[in-house]
Design brief:
The structure holds 2 protein chains of 2 kinds.
Chain A: H1 3-13, E1 18-24, E2 27-32, H2 37-46, E3 54-62, E4 70-77, E5 84-91, E6 97-99, H3 108-119, E7 122-124
Parallel strand pairs in A: 2-5, 6-7
Antiparallel strand pairs in A: 1-2, 3-4, 4-5
Chain B: E1 3-4, E2 11-12, H1 16-28, H2 32-41, E3 46-50, H3 54-62, E4 85-89, H4 97-106, E5 112-116, H5 118-122, E6 143-145, H6 152-168, E7 180-181
Parallel strand pairs in B: 3-4, 4-5, 5-6, 6-7
Antiparallel strand pairs in B: 1-2
Helix pairs in contact in B: 1-2, 2-6
The chains are: A alpha/beta, B alpha/beta.
């Protein structure tokens, strides 16, 4: 039914902004130029025909080895029109930044923080971009595919010195650099 | 203290009268710690550190059907200063680990720790950046209860094993404490 959302998007913004569209069994997807994502979202929310009042989710896909590497995915839902659309933006590893859509939907605040926490995507204009699920001392972004699977970063000293991580499979230590100005949680004793 | 009934295989819990006699006889024979241990084993005040799905099992065990109160482990205390049994129920993440360590440090001696479920005992199926693979990497553990989640019988068994351990403990002997594993 809602291919009309894609059609309206293309009509409103043209090919320079809406790079690709895709529809499969009622799932409609549009790939948007990253710089324009906030304008596209603002229009999708404010246009009475579109009326996407809700951002259900913002997440990211790591296509390791491809360029651009990351795909930021926005799931939008209209509470009044009851239609959905999915927007995607490709950003590269060297400079993974996007305009924040937090000014459009307040609900995007934590969703963007989570994407930042897990994938290291920087959302410009976000009022409070810091880690959401992990602790501030954490180094790296664990849902990136090149993050070591067993890369634990303990906050307290382990009782068994041998089980101090982070280690890679095979037992070699991971060299992780803590960002400046961040101190580890105070150790006991 | 557990005896198996030949007919039904049900555990027989000694009455408090039998135990009270045991308490005074332990005192009489000059082993003061025996009497103290008797008091401790039947007044375990638990601190339930409940983080995950095992918490549902904990609720079941501590409510009327399985009735942990039979073992003198009736009173959950949500302040570590009034508890001597720390029950770590559920997954402990690296983000939580400092909190768990602090709770344990705030508990007065003598104190005991039960690792409730596979996540607390070994990390369970987590082997990544989030979970602590076994709380014994942070704090010493007295009883490990495997299972995802453990059956109530396993927890009760663990509790009774811990009580046995408490009753035989000799204070002041370094290295006397060893963990018990529930089959």
């Amino acid at each position: 039914m809602s291919k009309k959302v894609l059609a309206a998007l293309q009509e409103q913004f043209g090919e320079e902004v809406v790079l690709k569209t895709h529809s499969h069994r009622g799932d409609d997807t549009a790939e948007i130029v990253p710089e324009m994502i906030r304008e596209v979202c603002r229009w999708l929310k404010s246009d009475p025909e579109m009326a996407f009042q809700q951002v259900s989710d913002i997440t990211c896909v790591d296509w390791l080895g491809q360029s651009p590497r990351f795909e930021v995915v926005y799931q939008l839902y209209s509470l009044t029109r009851r239609h959905r659309v999915r927007l995607k933006c490709r950003v590269d590893e060297s400079d993974p930044r996007l305009p924040s859509v937090q000014p459009v939907w307040k609900g995007a605040n934590w969703l963007e923080r989570e994407a930042y926490d897990m994938y290291g995507i920087v959302f410009e204009g976000h009022p409070d971009l810091r880690r959401l699920l992990l602790y501030p001392e954490f180094i790296g972004h664990p849902l990136r595919k090149d993050y070591p699977i067993r890369g634990e970063q303990p906050l307290v000293t382990m009782r068994d010195p041998e089980s101090q991580r982070p280690v890679m499979p095979g037992g070699t230590l991971i060299q992780l650099k803590r960002p400046e100005g961040v101190r580890p949680v105070a150790e006991e004793n | 203290m557990t005896k198996l009934d030949e007919t039904g295989g049900l555990p027989i819990i000694p009455t408090s009268r039998e135990d009270a006699i045991g308490f005074f006889s332990a005192l009489k024979t000059g082993k003061a710690h025996g009497g103290l241990n008797w008091a401790r084993r039947f007044s375990l005040f638990q601190y339930p550190f409940v983080t995950a799905c095992c918490g549902m099992e904990y609720m079941s065990i501590s409510s009327a059907r399985f009735d942990m109160g039979r073992f003198g482990a009736e009173v959950p205390r949500f302040t570590p200063r009034q508890a001597d049994l720390l029950m770590v129920v559920g997954t402990i993440t690296h983000k939580q680990a400092p909190v768990l360590r602090r709770v344990w440090e705030a508990m007065p001696e003598p104190r005991w720790v039960m690792a409730f479920g596979v996540c607390a005992s070994t990390g369970g199926f987590y082997q990544n950046y989030t979970a602590v693979e076994g709380i014994d990497r942070i704090i010493p553990v007295d009883v490990y209860v495997p299972g995802c989640p453990p059956r109530p019988e396993q927890v009760i068994d663990a509790l009774m094993l811990l009580q046995d351990k408490v009753s035989t403990e000799v204070r002041g002997v370094a290295g006397a404490r060893r963990p018990v594993v529930v089959e």
